[in-house]
Amino acid sequence: LASIDITRAVPRNVVLDSLSFAPLLRKADAVSPRTFAYSDSFGQGIKTAQAIRNETYKLVINEGVEELYALSVDPYEKQNLLGSELSAEARRNYEALKAKLAELRGTSKS
Q: Distance from first CA to last CA of the chain, Å, rounded?
């Protein structure tokens, strides 16, 4: 954000955890400092939507409706895992992604 005072432009309740990804662009073997990718309010006409993913799972919350995908076996996100009982691995990832999302959104209970 060129010449903008971020502390004045962003509401106080918004979590600021930005990191530069320039090192990843400069060095091919650089390691990301994060284990997740996050997107907030994407798409036209969507009032509240978030997506967060790790290496193997993606959690999408679109206007309150949750979807969980196992990207390693379902890269096109066709099978919402929350439509049936989750495996132990899927449950761990779901809970971890939900907790990280709550932390980023400033809604975690910790």
A: 30
- The residue with greater pLDDT, 65 or 30, is 65
The pLDDT tens digits of the residues spanning 60-108 come to: 998 889 999 999 999 999 999 999 999 999 999 999 999 999 888 877 6
- For 17, residues 6+ apart whose C-beta sits below 8 A from its C-beta are 104
Q: What is the pLDDT at residue 42?
A: 54
Q: How far apart are CA 100 and CA 35, in angstroms?
A: 11
Run of H or E including 99: helix 88-105
* Long-range Cβ contacts of 50-56 (<8 Å, 24+ apart): 50/101, 50/105, 52/97, 52/100, 52/101, 52/104, 53/97, 54/93, 54/96, 54/97, 56/93
Q: Is 35 helix (H, G, I), strand (E, B) or coil?
A: coil
